Amino acid sequence: MSAAGRTIAFGQERRAGYWLLAPLIAFLVITLGFPLATDLVYSVSTVSFTALWSPHWRGLGNFVDVLQDPVFWQAAGFSLRFAVIATVAEVALGFALVLILNPLLERHGWLIAFLILPMMISPALIGIMYRLMLNDFVGIIPQYLDMIGIDANLLGPQCVFGTLVVIEVLQWTPFALLALLAAYQAIPAELVEAARIDGGGSLSVFRFVTWPLMLPALGITAFIRFIDSFRVFDQIYVLTGGGPGTMTTSMSLYIYRAFFEKQQIGLAVAASLLLLVAAVLLLRVSLTRLLRNEPA
Amino acid sequence: MWKSLRLSLLAGAALAAAAAIRPAFAGDVTLLFWPGPESEAMQKAIDAYNAGQGKTDHVTVKQLLFSRQGYFDKELLDLAAGSKDFDLSLVTTYTIGRYAPYLAPINPYVTPEMSAQFAPVSLNSLSYNGKLYGVPTDISLHFLYYRKDLIAKLLADPAWQKTYTAIAQAKLGAALTPKDPADWTWQDFEAAALFFSRADNKASPTRYGTALQMKDLIFNIMLWQATLVSNGGNWLDAAGKPEIDSPATKTGLEIYKTLVDDKATSPASISYEFPETNEAFQSGQTAMILQWNAAYAELNDPTKSPVVAGKIGLAPLPAGSLGHKTHVHSLGIGLNKASLHQADAGKFLAWLATPAAMTVYGEAGGTPPMPSVLQALSTKRPEFKLIGNYASQYGFVVKGGTAPYALPVYTALADAFSAYWAGQVPVEKAMAQAQAGMTAAMAQK
């Protein structure tokens, strides 16, 4: 085929590609584009429930208000700390469980169904369950603690953060276990065998074979869990309502309360957009690093 | 044959079209409500209407239930969007100002003679700018619930009285003597709470004196604000300016703080709301609680509360410098401004505002704010008589409590005050934050 012919064929192929992409683009424009455009308008407007169709231009005032609101920074700090600690704990525990339980799970795969049960329960229901279990009059956990002489208020200012992290970790470690187990079982057996023939002990095999091959899965699992933990809402809303005080107000709860309870629609949308920008930046950095580390 | 087939197809199409447009038929009225005891009681009232007066009116009413969680947010969005899928909806004292632009006044359907049957405070609490926006169906206020057996012993036992006075002297700086709960001031309440707490009285029969509700929640502020109003405070001053940074606010906040710091209420009560306080009392480990009237039926039910049922005394909330006070709010049924069936919905509202309808509702579990009905049902529901009396004698709606900004103001107060009770900020800062939050909420358009 001549160069001109190749150019024409390439152009036709390209146009066909656009046509094939068109439904997806139309879907994205409808489902994401319209809400995003509305959000952009509301974020620079004064708007209320009584005047949703007639927002007044406010410039960057909502963004300034958000950035000057100490509760916003407190919520951002809470969400970040919560997400980092919960993610590290979930991935570490999940990986440890994979290493310990893999021989058993290879023989009895049905056990996985039981191990992942916690993540099948809705987070709001988890919140209600723990609200009952932590009740200091009828809850089972304070009763046990009392029996061993510990008088701890697990939802009090000193313990509430740790309590919420533990609840999150207990619910979502099974996800890490599931994702990492799949990656672990996909490591070619011949690689491990070759390492052992070369005289590698368990530690060396883990260090030079398992760990490098597990890194992408660990990274992706951590990334998914981080995003999910950062936007934590349900169990905190049910269990503490963001308190004591505003101590456990997460970013999602901050936005929800600003929007619905305080009717600060512009401010809530501005906070959402700031969160979106932060998430996109994080996604970009994480994906770049993950793709760079991916084995050829 | 072809003719028969065509006729059959036409008949089928007509039936399908009729079914499709049935919701728009005159006579069908939809009530948007939340699930729970109110909707169960309301269903009994609706059944009575549909089987009786509804036939005369040629109106049939049905309920459409949204989930309770976030109900008001969803209802507001639907009202604001001009939804025609429902004709009537739940309205409350604290949302009435916010919803009023999307509701039709019900004065044309509920005449002054009919209104006169209701407790005036309940009508006021569902009125905005001089117009009535809902038929009041439930009234909510607060009681002091106490263990009669424990208080009886305190009033009779000299050894307990001596300890009581010593604790009051040591903790509150006043040598108080025990009184009947109906005569309590806030200081008496504090003294009794301290006496019945093991942290201050090792011989206390209960672990804690009380179980306050201090979670960051608007309903907890409604309960707390009796300490504010009974001591002469309010949301707004006479000129309509915020005055939540007043000495009365500080007094009210410190009553709670003293009790939590001295472990007269569980330290966990900074995360408590309605159910946790009930559980504390039901377990028999708490001597008295400040709680909503709705809790009485459960607390006095021997199957649900075997430890305390039959031993519960009711009294007004403790008195401040202005005497006893209790927050009052009403639930009611309002009329959607966008409804296509306003006249039919109005017929149901007119029926609902009668003593007969309110009796059906009250017998089915509601708390209708109609003194004659409350009195008539008091043999079955003993707390009803007190509800009528307390609402008229001690009931208040804070200044601004029905305004469009009421909900954001409650939220701002809950944020600031729960932070103080949790020890996150000092009282002055909490009050300043509350004042700023209230000012900002009122400034919103």
Radius of gyration of chain A: 25 Å
Strand content of chain A: under 5%
CATH topology of the largest domain in chain B, by name, is D-Maltodextrin-Binding Protein, domain 2
The residue-averaged pLDDT of chain B reads 91
- Within CATH, the superfamily of the largest domain in chain B carries the name Periplasmic binding protein-like II
> Could you say what the CATH topology of the largest domain in chain A is called?
MetI-like fold
Count of separate structural domains of chain B? 2
* Helix proportion of chain A: over 70%
The first-to-last residue Cα distance of chain A is 33 Å
Task: Looking at this protein, list some descriptive labels.
heterodimer, A: 296 residues, mainly alpha, MetI-like fold, 2 domains, two-stranded antiparallel ribbon, 12 helices, 2 strands, 75% helix, flat, B: 445 residues, alpha/beta, D-Maltodextrin-Binding Protein, domain 2, 6-stranded mixed sheet, 20 helices, 13% strand, globular, cell membrane (chain B), Sugar ABC transporter substrate-binding protein (chain B), signal (chain B), SBP (chain B), lipoprotein (chain B)
Report on the structure:
The complex is a heterodimer of chains A (296) and B (445). Chain A is mostly helical. Chain A has 2 domains: 3-31; 75-293, MetI-like fold, CATH 1.10.3720.10. Helix content of chain A is 75%, strand content 1%. Chain A is built from 12 helices and 2 strands, in the order αββααααααααααα. Chain A has helices spanning 3-43, 61-68, 70-107, 111-115, 123-133, 140-147, 160-185, 189-197, 202-230, 234-239, 251-261, 265-293, and strands at 45-46, 56-57. Chain A has a two-stranded antiparallel ribbon with strand order 1-2. In chain A, α3 crosses α9, α7 (160-185) packs across α9 (202-230) and α9 packs antiparallel against α12 (265-293). The longest helix of chain A is centred in the first third of the chain and has 41 residues, at 3-43. By secondary structure, chain B is of the alpha/beta class. Chain B has 2 domains: 27-139 and 328-396, D-Maltodextrin-Binding Protein, domain 2; 142-327 and 405-443, Periplasmic binding protein-like II (D-Maltodextrin-Binding Protein, domain 2), CATH 3.40.190.10. Helix content of chain B is 47%, strand content 13%. Chain B has 20 helices and 13 strands. Chain B has helices at 2-21, 37-51, 53-57, 71-80, 96-99, 112-115, 120-124, 148-156, 158-172, 186-195, 218-229, 247-261, 274-282, 296-299, 342-352, 355-363, 371-376, 383-394, 406-421, 427-443; strands at 28-33, 60-65, 88-92, 103-104, 127-128, 131-132, 135-140, 142-147, 288-292, 312-315, 326-327, 329-336, 395-396. In chain B, the strands form 4 sheets. In chain B, strands 1, 2, 3, 4, 7 and 12 form a 6-stranded mixed β-sheet that branches. In chain B, strands 9-8-10 form a 3-stranded antiparallel β-sheet. In chain B, strands 5-6 form a two-stranded antiparallel ribbon. In chain B, α11 crosses α19 (406-421). The longest helix of chain B has 20 residues, at 2-21. The radius of gyration of chain B is 25 Å and the shape is globular. The termini of chain B are far apart. Residues 17-24 of chain B have low confidence and may be disordered.
